[in-house]
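Work Package 4 report. The design task specified in the project plan requires that, given a folded chain encoded as structure tokens, an amino acid be chosen for each position. We show below one input record used in the internal validation round.
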């Protein structure tokens, strides 16, 4: 018996060709998605590398300052040695022979919550009556990333002015320990990219401020052949408040204090 087709031959659908086409399309679509993800990762890596270069450039500044201070002090000591001028050793300035010292230091800052950054400081102190009591002022710069809340980790540039008091119980020792306290004020600058929430929705202003209180413990020792120059190391712990106003809302206070490990150079003079 002769069989008849259910429909015209021209109406038959080439299902095999359709399946092959769908498979090829899905494969190329997957390649496109993978390519877009790879491009996003590369862009994120480039941004991270750019930020790392900026941080290394900032770290070079305190290093140059320390090098300059050291060379200046060594040059002064060499000049005294050449012309035969006696140099008063630092341990003999008891009784206000050398009642001042200027210090430059840098180190690592670790906030209570967030990622560590760096700290640069310049201090000027005056001795009163003996080498044991020193009162002065400090200028400080910090760069770090603080975790304010979940998924909100702004980068901070903090500029501080602080008054300090230091007590040196054994000023004539080769390794002379000391302790101190400080109180002051900080101005915070938050990066624009972290100061916004949704696109176009400003969460907070870029500039804010707050108070700071710290305690420190350190040790200093003279540099051979440069009596007016000393090296020092300090461990610091302190709080730092950040008072800012939410756009369209109330004021909010965050805590961005932490730990600091610092080393540097100290020059004593009359």
């Amino acid at each position: 018996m002769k069989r008849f087709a259910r429909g015209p031959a021209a109406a038959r659908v080439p299902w095999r060709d359709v399946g092959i086409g769908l498979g090829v399309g899905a494969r190329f679509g997957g390649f496109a998605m993978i390519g877009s993800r790879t491009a996003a990762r590369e862009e994120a890596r480039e941004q991270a590398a750019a930020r790392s270069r900026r941080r290394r450039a900032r770290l070079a500044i305190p290093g140059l300052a320390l090098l300059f201070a050291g060379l200046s002090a060594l040059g002064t000591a060499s000049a005294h040695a050449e012309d035969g001028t006696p140099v008063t050793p630092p341990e003999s300035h008891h009784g206000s022979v050398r009642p001042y010292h200027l210090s430059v230091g840098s180190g690592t800052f670790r906030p209570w919550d967030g990622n560590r950054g760096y700290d640069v400081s310049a201090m000027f102190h005056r001795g009163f009556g003996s080498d044991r009591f020193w009162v002065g002022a400090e200028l400080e710069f910090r760069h770090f990333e603080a975790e304010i809340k979940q998924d909100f980790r702004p980068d901070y540039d903090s500029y501080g002015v602080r008054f300090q008091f230091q007590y040196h119980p054994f000023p004539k020792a080769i390794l002379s320990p000391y302790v101190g306290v400080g109180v002051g004020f900080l101005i915070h600058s938050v990066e624009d990219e972290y100061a916004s929430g949704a696109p176009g929705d400003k969460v907070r202003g870029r500039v804010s401020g707050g108070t700071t209180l710290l305690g420190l413990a350190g040790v200093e020792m003279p540099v051979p052949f440069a009596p007016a120059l000393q090296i020092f190391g300090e461990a610091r712990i302190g709080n730092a408040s950040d008072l800012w106003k939410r756009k369209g809302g109330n004021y909010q206070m965050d805590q961005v204090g932490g730990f600091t490990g610092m080393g540097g150079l100290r020059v004593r003079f009359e």
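The chain has one helix and nine strands. Validation will be extended to a larger panel in the next phase.
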